[in-house]
Amino acid sequence: MRARYLTALFFFILGTMFSTESSASDDAAKLQEEIHHKGWIVYCSRADNGTWDLFLCRPDGSDKRNLTNTADFEEAAPRFSPDGKKILYRRLDKGSTINHDKWGFQGKLTICNSDGSDPVEYGGEGEYPWAAWSPDGTQIASLTVKGIQVIDLASRKVVKEFPRKGIYQQLFWSPDGKWFCGTGNHGGESWTVVRMNLETGEVNALRSFQTCTPDWYPDSEHVIVSSRPAGQPANNGYGYTQLWEVDGEGKEQKLLYGEDGVHIYSGAVSPDGEYILFSKCPDDGGGAERSGGTICLMRSADAPTIGGPSPELRKVHPDVKNGPVIEIDKGWEPHWTYQEISVRP
Amino acid sequence: MGSLWLACSQEPNTGEDPEVTTRGSVEVTAQLVEIRGEFVNRADYDYAFVMKYKVLEVHRGKVDSDFIYVAHYNPEKPRDRVADERVSDVGGTLQKFHAGDIHRMALETPIDDYFMGGIINRYFEEYKGPIYWAVWTNPVSK
User: Fold this and answer.
1) Does A143 touch chain B (CB under 8 A)?
2) Of the residues A75, A133, B39, B43, which has the maximum number of CB atoms within 10 A of its CB?
3) Which of B44, B46, B118 sits opposite A185 (nearest CB)?
4) Model confidence, pTM
5) pLDDT tier for residue A100 given thresholds of 50, 70 and 90
6) With an 8 Å Cβ cutoff, are B121 and A185 in contact?
7) Size of interface A-B (CB pairs under 8 A)
8) Which of A99, A146, A188 comes nearest B121 by C-beta?
């Protein structure tokens, strides 16, 4: 009798496991179907030729193609222009190691069409560091040691300058044109993501302590960041970097995705704010020095989500949604446009 | 006994060399009063670390205070191996920082005009004045 009961229990647990797995698989399939036609994602990845190239794919990872296919360069950190017609990126000499903290200083600023055609080296080696698109795509902002310069792309003239107020890397311009965000020193703390008001030049902290790689939400009122909170026992006390959302005042802080065992970087938001891109990698920094991490996608509405067993992280965040997460490809620094691109086969 | 003789027989070193006397806009000999807290022992993160000095002599430029706060780039590295892709124009002969030691330094200020990176400043709450950027750092022995 007892044996029969135990057998029944075993099959019940097994059935529940399969059902949960099947349900998760269904959820992921639904998400893939939902996003398949929502524009394109550009990212950098190791190509068959061994160098970093730019790749384009649908948000579900399908229709992947190598945009640049250049065996003589390392190409990194692509960003679509706001109208989706151009891509800005850094082109490094073959064999250069992309540094996850210095890539904005590295190589030459290069701009091509969104289908990869007509690449033009806009500057020399190391020029226009941390170049970021203006909201209308006619200008770039560049973060230099002497300050933030706004450069008119057509004339190459510096049309405005701002003191950088401690910002030292990863500069991005808000879609409404009113703000910069970046990683900087603020209030005696390094690795703080800050926001600068372009009208007043005032800077406020969005999230301090081991926080970097910010990017704007389309509402210009929220920023996605990578952050490694203190007090994590995992990884010999070093902890793991997680993906967070913060508001422009730095008051609301929300975990988006975390997973013990991997560091979460390359956070980017879909053009409507409904979806989130990120990469996960065992190496802190996102793995730019090697082959990047696994680029993933999830719904914003499913945040916070925690991946893997992550027992310590789940203790800190017990109310997670565990939404589906799609793995797209191996790479680094993805960016999304909803514009259609006539891509070459 | 031998090492004591060797120490006593060493020539005093003023730290003067063609680099420290020409680089930067300020040149001082100063005693490292305090290294507050631990360095960040992370090989893959560059940073500058602020240390407190007592000024003993001003060789060039103007220094308005008896105590200055100096940021050293990646302080766990010997100065002759500290220059890199991010910061190419720093150096010196100092091998290791010890509180109480005397250094001859070529400096610039304000730091933000010369260094764009993370700054660990554990004096931020108590000191709001200029932070000097250490361009060249040599040890001084008496």
Assistant:
1) yes
2) A75
3) B118
4) 0.90
5) confident
6) yes
7) 44
8) A188
Q: In this predicted model, what pLDDT tens digit does every residue of A212-258 receive, in sequence order?
A: 999 999 999 999 999 999 999 989 889 999 999 999 999 999 999 99
Query: B121: distance to nearest CA of chain A, Å?
Result: 5
Per the CB < 8 A criterion, the answer to whether B140 and B14 are in contact is yes
Tokens of A178: 């009113």
- Which of B44, B17, B48 has its CA nearest to residue B115? B48
* Per-residue model confidence as pLDDT tens digits over A15-49: 554 455 567 789 999 999 999 999 999 999 999 99
For chain A, positions 81-100, list CB contacts with chain B under 8 A.
Answer: 99-100
CB within 8 Å: B120 and A191: no
The pLDDT, as a whole number, for residue B2 is 43
Nearest chain A CA: its distance from B69 CA (Å): 13
The number of CA neighbours under 13 Å toward the Cβ of A86 is 21
Query: Is the bond leading into B110 cis (omega within 30 degrees of zero)?
Result: yes
A227 contacts A241 by C-beta, under 8 angstroms: yes
Residue in B85, B113, B118 nearest the CB of A145: B113
Instruction: Identify the residue whose tokens are 């800077």.
Output: A203
Question: Average pLDDT, stretch B62-66?
Answer: 95
Across the interface, whether the CB atoms of A145 and B125 are under 8 A apart is answered no
Q: Is the pLDDT of residue B3 over 60?
A: no
Task: Give contacts of B 31-50 with A, CB under 8 A.
Answer: 44-47
3-state secondary structure of A103: helix
Largest CA distance in chain B: 49
Interface predicted TM-score (ipTM) of this complex, two decimals: 0.85
Within 10 A of A268 (CB to CB), how many other CB atoms are there?
Answer: 22
Interface test with chain B among A96, A183, A185, by most B beta carbons within 10 Å: A185
DSSP three-state, residue A168: strand
Q: Which residues contact A182 (CB under 8 A, 6 or more apart)?
A: A130, A143, A164, A167, A168, A169, A170, A171, A172, A193, A194, A196, A214
Give the start-to-end residue ranges of the domains of chain A.
Answer: 26-337
Q: What are phi and psi of A302, to 5 degrees?
A: -90, 5
CATH fold for domain A26-337 = Neuraminidase (2.120.10)
Q: Which two tokens stand for residue A205?
A: 């902290």
